[in-house]
Design goal:
This protein has about 350 residues and is mainly alpha-helical. Helix content is about 65%, strand content about 5%. The chain has 16 helices and four strands.
Length: about 350
């Protein structure tokens, strides 16, 4: 009897082991298939949230198809995109049958999905020395109201010092923001199945514009940003003190590795520079660690590849009507030639304007 019971127990154990092995193989197969599925990112080059996701994808060395959803052309409000993401916001990541619509969720998804030994980790393992440090600074930086900084500085350029957005682009963007509400209303009427989504977006837009056009509110949040930059400067000083030897590898924000917190910080500093706020928060001998950090970021190959040439916002902001005509109304051969000539001339002057501004800043 004892022998029979022992054999039954052994058989049951072997069955469980086989079941576990089968589950592991199935999970491994599903994981491999998931990683082999194509990544598709819908984004806008000038979108702050899109820039974070694109930089993270580049840092992880992932292959990804990218599609520009032009905000100046209101493509993010078009029915096809609203069906993809009912909030009408970029970025949106599509992976197999998964649709992820918010930048923080996209970054977490990428980190959790692509964890093989050949893919760099941007978030340390839970329980490691660096995990809580990375998460703290990531959450701190991601809590900043970047859309309020951006819209506020566009609407009130007088508070900036060395903005890369010229006056003519500012006036064009102001006009565009003002017409958005009526555009959403018409889209809601034309697409009844998306009416609730368009109305919800219209309400969010009203609230945003009310806050972002308030100079007192803008000055308040820019003052609060000083405290965040002080915290970052102090942390960068700690990294400098940890590697005092000359010639030693310089650390990043949370250690000797480029983390998700660095993704957030790098794109934040680049946006502040673009808005004309860099002299306020670093430079001229203030926050020297932050200034050195930003210079290193600009020389990082992945950053240069993703964000090295983003100043085409000047063209897209000033000539959205021309682009809209080129996209939605196929012109005749002569019309096409004239339009390309106009756009080419505008691009040429915009390039030299940008180059001049960059040399002076």
């Amino acid at each position: 009897m004892a022998t029979g019971g022992s054999n039954e127990a052994q058989d049951e154990k072997e069955m469980l082991l086989k079941k576990d092995e089968g589950q592991e193989k199935q999970e491994l197969t599903e994981s491999t298939k998931k990683k082999e599925c194509k990544l598709v990112l819908y984004h806008w080059t000038q979108s702050f949230s899109s820039q974070k996701v694109r930089l993270a994808i580049a840092e992880k060395g992932l292959k990804c198809e990218e599609y520009d959803v032009s905000l100046p052309l209101s493509e993010h409000n078009e029915p096809w995109f609203m069906r993809l993401n009912p909030t009408g916001e970029v970025p949106v990541l599509v992976h197999d049958d998964q649709i992820i619509c918010e930048s923080t969720q996209i970054l977490d998804y990428l980190e959790q999905t692509f964890q093989d030994e050949n893919t760099p980790r941007l978030i340390p393992e839970l329980g490691s020395t660096y995990y809580h440090r990375v998460q703290h600074y990531r959450e701190l930086l991601d809590s900043l109201p970047m859309d309020a900084y951006t819209h506020g500085c566009i609407l009130h350029p007088e508070i900036t010092v060395d903005s890369h957005i010229p006056a003519y682009a500012t006036s064009r963007i102001q006009s565009q923001i003002g017409s958005m509400e009526s555009e959403l209303k018409k889209l809601a009427e034309d697409n009844p199945e998306l009416k609730d989504a368009y109305i919800a977006k219209q309400r969010r837009l009203k609230t945003k514009l009310f806050d972002h056009d308030n100079v007192k509110f803008l000055k308040k949040i820019l003052d609060e940003l000083e405290n965040v930059m002080d915290q970052v400067e102090t942390e960068l000083q700690r990294r400098a003190e940890e590697t005092p030897e000359e010639g030693s590898q310089q650390a990043w924000l949370c250690g000797d590795f480029f983390s998700m917190a660095d993704v957030s910080l790098a794109v934040t500093l680049h946006r502040l520079k673009f808005l004309g706020l860099s002299r306020r928060y670093w430079g001229n001998g203030t926050r020297v660690n932050l200034e050195t950090y930003y210079e290193r970021v600009l020389n990082r190959p992945t950053f240069r590849r993703v964000l090295g040439h983003v100043n085409n916002i000047l063209i897209s902001a000033v000539l959205p009507t021309a682009f809209r005509v080129a996209k939605k109304r196929a012109p005749t051969f002569i019309g096409t030639t004239v339009l390309i000539g106009l756009l080419g001339g505008a691009t040429y002057f915009a390039f030299h304007y940008i180059k001049k501004r960059l040399l002076l800043s």
